Amino acid sequence: MEDQLKDPSIFIGLQGKNLISFGSGQPDLAPPEQVFKILPKYKQFKYGLIQGQENLREALSKQYEKSNKANFVITNGASEALDLTFRSICQPGDKVLVHKPYYYSYVPLLEKNHLKPVFTETINGKIDFNDFEEKAKGCKAVLINSPSNPTGRIQEISILKKIEKTCAEQDITIVSDEVYKDLIYERKNYMLHGDHVVTINSFSKTFAMCGFRVGYLYSKDKNIVKKTIALKTHTSMNTSIIAQEMAFEATKAPHSYQQEQLTIWKKRRDLIYQGLLDLGLDLWNPEGAFYVLPKVPNPRKTVWDLFKKHKVITYLGDWFGAPERIRLSYALDQEKIEEGLKRIGTYLKA
Ligand SMILES: Cc1ncc(COP(=O)(O)O)c(C=O)c1O
User: Is residue 164 scored above 70 in pLDDT?
Assistant: First the structure.
């Protein structure tokens, strides 16, 4: 029944013969091959540092200007980094500004930590700075996600700079979820800067290592780093040490690894964007990440019927604060995208 579509858990991990899944946002491309090479020789088994293994933090600090290993905490994916950050910087009842449409975990994550999400609408997936500035007043933090899941849109650099300025002036923390920063088709990532910024990142998307669960937070504010370590000490303790060692190997992957992946993602982006336009759907051209968010009539029925009658998984836009739309991830090969588009076309024509 359509009312089973209360959240994505109905589809996560679901596999089946003849099933085409545009559901989960996990890369199907392989991690760099050197991450597996350490496995036969690996012999560590004791607890690791709560903050994260030194070699990995050291390697990360080389990617962030004027940083050092003390500025990083290695976490169980970006998911834990987000949770620890909000619990460290906020008090129950604090407001956090989120731009719509948003990643489906943001709202439950804030609410379960007794925080109040406040929303700013976007125009074609782009932040409307006037609305943003107005709604940011009185917020403890703002959560920025560029490139965005689910829109695939990136925020303009001029707007990101304005956000930096207004948040610094009003002492608002920017939590910048940059898990798709290496998957941008149009330009290089612009990293939000400043003492009041906490950057969230992950090995899940850039290096296709989602199941290994390695992410991190980066902050110039040592107090935030200290608080997150104190929380992690009594919750998950260290992030898997073997996964961290694999992530460390991934940091040594040649640049060509990311370039090759990006070329594949771009081809798929072009295929699905044009395919959905040809079916008459209204959607934004993704500039990064690997999602499209077309408008469809009666999204709940569409998602249900596509699944039940055509064996195609798509996600309900409602989960992302976009009730008129559905989300498709194009983390699947060209043949499957083509077959999926064919089935969607058959459904829409009927
Ligand atoms: C925007 C965004 N943030 C965070 C995450 C969680 O990533 P991780 O696997 O690193 O926990 C995801 C996963 O899809 C995401 O899309």
Answer: yes
Q: What confidence score (pLDDT) does residue 1 get?
A: 62
Within-domain flag for 35:
no
Residue 14 reports pLDDT greater than 90: no
Q: How many residues does the chain have?
A: 350
pLDDT higher than 90, residue 4: no
Ligand 1 site residues (CB inside 6 A) read 25, 77-79, 103, 145, 149, 177, 179, 202, 204, 210, 215
The answer to whether 100 and 83 have CB atoms below 8 angstroms apart is no
Dump pLDDT digits (tens) for 69-101. 999 999 999 999 999 999 999 999 999 999 999
Is the domain of 274 the same as that of 167? no
Q: Is residue 211 part of a domain?
A: yes
The string of pLDDT tens digits covering residues 238-262 is: 999 999 999 999 999 999 999 999 9
Q: Are residues 315 and 337 in the same domain?
A: yes
Atom of ligand 1 nearest to the CA of 26: 14
Q: How many CA atoms lie within 13 A of 320 on its CB side?
A: 26
CA–CA gap between residue 16 and residue 313 (Å, rounded): 11
Interval between CA 348 and ligand 1 midpoint (Å): 31
Question: Are 215 and 286 contained in the same domain?
Answer: no
Using the predicted structure, report yes or no on whether residue 155 has a pLDDT greater than 90.
yes
Looking at the domain assignment, is residue 70 inside a domain? yes
Using the mean position of ligand 1's atoms as its centre, give its distance from the Cα of residue 278 in Å. Answer: 30
CATH number at residue 313: 3.90.1150.10
Residue 191 and residue 98 share a domain: yes
Please report the DSSP string for 184-198 in residue order. BSSS------STTEE
The whole-angstrom separation of Cα 249 and Cα 38 is 8
Same domain, 224 and 291: no
Q: Name the percent of the chain lying above pLDDT 70.
A: 99
Which residue among 26, 79, 182 has the greatest number of ligand 1 atoms within 8 angstroms of its CB, and so is best to mutate? Answer: 79
Residue 229 covered by a domain: yes
In the chain the first and final C-alpha atoms are separated, in Å, by 20
Could you identify the atom of ligand 1 that is nearest to the CA of residue 210?
Answer: 9
For residue 291, the enclosing domain spans 2-30+255-349
282 and 344 both lie in a single domain: yes
Ligand 1 closest atom vs CA 289: 16
Instruction: For residue 103, give the ligand 1 atom closest to its CA.
Output: 1
Distance 81 CA to ligand 1 centre (A): 10
